[in-house]
């Protein structure tokens, strides 16, 4: 079996240039047929030479990187799971080999699968050893198998590469797009840069931008090649255009969001005024309940206790299953811990708008608008709350 290396550029979306290359194995059988990398490693494993084959691949990656290398760019090297063991902690030997190629540990990003080692402590020790030696650590294919955030906090990688399936699943799926952005934000809390893999189209690149990814990799920017070829002038212009498109779309979404929010706030103020004038609760809330985004309306006392049963919009009643029936009744519920109650009490002259949360009983993603008011013949403040479907503001 013969082996060679192709290099695929990794792009900084903000810097609009190549910041590194992933070294990818290309193997051929003795008859000249291409052999997928996983099959090549499995073949070596069956022969009992997995670690030897892995070292051969790494040496080949380093050797053929010579024409491409720059001190301000990384080389990403995939490590086989067979190499994640205490016997393979040989940073000094690797550093000497790198020096012969004019490279240093900080030029190298070691890519490790999150579940590469059956022994979690062994993986932590391996990561700590090479990071202490100056190498950067990337966790590859996050989002598949048994990926979990706890492991990221334990390993503290420099870079996390999201599996291409996360981007593919987010295409044309607003819910998954929101999850992609939240996932990136959570992973960044560990101190890692985030790479989105599998960027194949302009829409994919825009989704990576809108999700606030740091880096991107995919056929849109460049296919793997022996010298990591890419068109820097095209890349600069393409990302300039994509940034412009993303900002314009963001501006338009924010404009529509503001219009919708203002309209709902005005309706809430009119409803609160009607209640303050002594109009009974069902009559005062009849108009706002007709709004397509409104799901329920209710009233809290100064302690955060719900003092009337929620009034539910007709379109919600029709769509709500009885799966959460035990949570349907809400009179007497205590919502004092909710920010929309506390903020309304602290700032009685202002309409409050909550962050999205899972609303009960239908478990939709909700946002609550709230406003403090006083009813006739009472000195106690009440808080009027209107739950809306969160998707309405982002449509």
Based on CA inertia axes, which overall geometry fits? elongated
Q: What is the N-to-C succession of helices and strands?
A: EEEHHEHEHEHEHHEHEHHEEHHEEEEH
Q: Mean pLDDT across all residues, rounded?
A: 90
Mind telling me the C-alpha Rg?
Answer: 28 Å
How many DSSP H or I helices? 13
**DSSP strand count:** 15
Overall structural class, as computed from helix and strand content, comes to alpha/beta
| Biggest β-sheet description | 8 strands, mixed, barrel
Task: Give the termini distance in whole angstroms.
Answer: 54 Å
Question: Could you name the ranges where pLDDT drops below 50 across 5 or more consecutive residues?
Answer: none
| Widest sheet, order of strands | 1-2-4-5-6-7-8-9
Q: Helical amount among residues, as a percent range? A: 25-40%
Strand content: 15-25%
Task: Summarize the structure in short.
The chain has about 400 residues and is an alpha/beta fold. About 40% of the residues lie in helices and about 20% in strands.
Notes on the structure:
This protein is α/β, with parallel strands linked by helices and 395 residues long. Helices cover 39% and strands 22% of the residues. It has helices at 37-46, 50-63, 91-100, 120-132, 149-155, 164-170, 174-188, 202-210, 232-276, 281-285, 314-319, 339-346, 391-394; strands at 2-12, 17-28, 34-35, 74-78, 108-113, 136-142, 159-162, 193-197, 215-217, 294-300, 311-312, 352-353, 357-358, 365-374, 381-389. The strands form two sheets. The chain has an eight-stranded mixed beta barrel with strand order 1-2-4-5-6-7-8-9, surrounded by five helices. Helix 6 packs antiparallel against helix 7 (174-188) and helix 8 (202-210) crosses helix 9. The protein is elongated. The protein starts with a strand and ends with a helix. The model has no long low-confidence stretch (mean pLDDT 90).
């Amino acid at each position: 079996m013969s082996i060679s290396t192709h290099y695929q550029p990794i792009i900084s979306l903000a810097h609009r240039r190549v910041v590194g290359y992933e070294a990818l194995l290309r193997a051929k059988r003795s008859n000249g047929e291409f052999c997928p990398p996983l099959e090549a490693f499995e073949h070596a494993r069956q022969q009992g030479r997995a670690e030897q084959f892995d070292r051969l691949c790494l040496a080949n990656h380093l050797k053929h990187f010579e024409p491409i290398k720059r001190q301000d760019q990384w080389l990403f090297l995939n490590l086989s799971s067979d190499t994640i063991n205490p016997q393979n902690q040989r940073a000094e030997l690797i550093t000497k080999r790198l020096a012969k190629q004019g490279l240093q540990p900080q030029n190298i990003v070691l890519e490790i699968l999150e579940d590469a080692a059956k022994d979690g402590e062994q993986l932590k020790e391996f990561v700590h050893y090479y990071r202490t030696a100056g190498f950067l650590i990337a966790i590859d294919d996050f989002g598949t198998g048994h990926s979990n955030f706890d492991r990221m906090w334990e390993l503290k990688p420099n870079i996390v590469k999201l599996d291409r399936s996360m981007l593919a699943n987010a295409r044309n799926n607003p819910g998954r797009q929101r999850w992609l952005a939240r996932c990136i934000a959570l992973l960044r809390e560990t101190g890692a840069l985030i790479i989105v893999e599998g960027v194949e189209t302009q829409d994919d690149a825009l989704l990576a931008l809108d999700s606030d990814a740091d880096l991107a990799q995919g056929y849109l920017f460049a296919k793997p090649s022996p010298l990591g070829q890419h068109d820097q002038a095209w890349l600069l212009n393409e990302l300039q255009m994509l940034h412009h498109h993303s900002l314009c779309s963001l501006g338009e979404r924010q404009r529509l969001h503001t219009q919708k929010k203002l309209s709902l706030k005005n309706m809430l103020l009119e409803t609160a005024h009607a209640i303050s004038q002594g109009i009974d609760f069902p009559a005062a809330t009849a108009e706002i309940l007709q709004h397509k985004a409104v799901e329920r309306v209710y009233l809290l006392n100064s302690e955060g206790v719900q003092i009337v049963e929620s009034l539910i919009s007709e379109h919600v009643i029709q769509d709500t299953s009885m799966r959460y029936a035990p949570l349907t009744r809400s009179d007497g519920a205590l919502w004092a811990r909710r920010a929309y109650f506390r903020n309304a009490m602290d700032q009685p002259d202002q309409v409050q708008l909550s962050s999205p949360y899972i609303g009960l009983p239908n478990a939709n993603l909700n946002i609550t608008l709230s406003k403090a008011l006083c009813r006739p013949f009472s000195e106690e403040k009440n808080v009027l709350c209107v739950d809306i479907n969160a998707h309405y503001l982002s449509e």
